[in-house]
Design a protein that fits this description.
Blueprint (H helix, E strand, L loop, with lengths): L1 E10 L8 E5 L8 H11 L3 E6 L6 E6 L4 E2 L3 H13 L8 E6 L2 E9 L5 E6 L4 E4 L4 H7 L14 E4 L3 E6 L16 H4 L7 E6 L9 E3 L16 H15 L7 E7 L7 E10 L2 E8 L1 E11 L4
Parallel strand pairs: 2-3, 4-6, 11-12, 13-14
Antiparallel strand pairs: 1-2, 1-17, 3-4, 4-5, 6-7, 7-8, 8-16, 9-10, 10-11, 12-13, 14-15, 15-16
């Protein structure tokens, strides 16, 4: 039997038990894929991250939901880099590269005068694909009517490292009514059945925020809702730059709020820069340490 220490951090918040929880496992390069998956299942967070050695970057991070491995996760990246920095494992390093299954991505670390750590993560180039399924069935799967969808904006799959279905919603009030039936998702988007769902709107609770969102997990992930999402916020920013405000002054900076409906209020700062026919996407956030979790591995592989 092996005892593993998992450090619980909340990303995109300075306040414990707000933002998005992530597990971080340090100093365990010898864990097998099966053990990493078991740890993620036992912890139960949307993602648990495993920083390990890399031959092509400063470090590699692997991300696991309770159900499967993910190519990239924004909030777990924030949590991991914050853990390494706050524990002194990065020294004075303020720039580093991370190897992920979505590619090698640069990270910047800034410390404020009050020693607050801000982490900026560049994401992969954004890609979009048309949603060809039933809008009525899609709306019903998250507890809404088709009339709640924004008629003038497209529903699209988007990715800056992991795919999600971006759903523009007319009004903020609809977000309180959302009740996802995740098991219906694969039948509705047969062309991308493992996609998560990311409804958003331009109305916000906080006057300092520019966009509001919720994020509902793929049914294969073993979770229902992701409280505050980094990768989805990034690709949502690219969507905003391409389909809503395409005449912006470069770079475009704005704030995404998420998690209010489930009492996990968090913020993601998104920066979009023009790059030839595409965009560079960066997100910035904070994290806070919460507690240690012990996981006993007793499964024979």
């Amino acid at each position: 039997m092996k005892s593993i220490t998992v450090y619980h951090y909340d990303a995109f918040s300075k306040e414990p038990d707000k933002g998005n929880p992530a597990g971080v496992v340090l100093n365990d390069d010898e864990l097998t894929d099966e053990e990493m998956q078991e740890i993620a299942f036992e912890v139960g967070f949307n993602e648990t991250a495993f920083p390990i050695k890399s031959d092509v970057a400063d470090l590699r991070i692997r991300f696991f939901t309770p159900g499967h491995e993910m190519d990239l996760c924004g909030h777990a990246t924030m949590a991991t880099v914050y853990a390494l920095k706050s524990k002194g494992l990065l020294g004075d390093k303020k720039e580093l590269t991370i190897e992920t299954n979505a590619g090698i991505l640069p990270i910047k670390i800034n410390e404020s005068v009050d020693s607050e750590i801000y982490i900026t993560m560049k994401q992969a180039s954004p890609h979009f694909k048309e949603f060809a399924g039933s809008k009525e069935a899609l709306a019903n799967s998250i507890g809404l009517k088709e009339s709640d969808l924004h008629a003038d904006l497209p529903i699209l799959y988007g990715s800056t490292g992991t795919w999600t279905l971006l759903i523009p919603i007319k009004q903020l009030a609809a977000f309180q009514s959302m009740v996802p039936n995740n098991k219906q998702f694969p039948d509705i988007f047969k062309d991308m059945p493992k996609s998560s769902v990311h409804p958003f709107c331009l109305e916000t609770y906080d006057s300092n925020a520019d966009m509001h969102a919720r994020h509902f997990s793929s049914p294969y992930s073993g979770t229902i809702e992701d409280a505050v999402t980094g990768t989805a916020s990034g690709v949502m920013g690219a969507y905003y730059a391409k389909y809503i405000h395409n005449n912006f002054k470069d770079p475009l900076n704005f704030i995404v709020e998420q998690g209010q409906e489930i009492e996990k209020d968090g913020r993601v700062v998104v920066q979009i820069s023009k790059k030839s026919e595409s965009f560079d996407v960066q997100i910035t956030g904070v994290a806070v340490y919460v507690k240690e979790i012990k996981v006993l591995l007793d499964r024979a592989y």
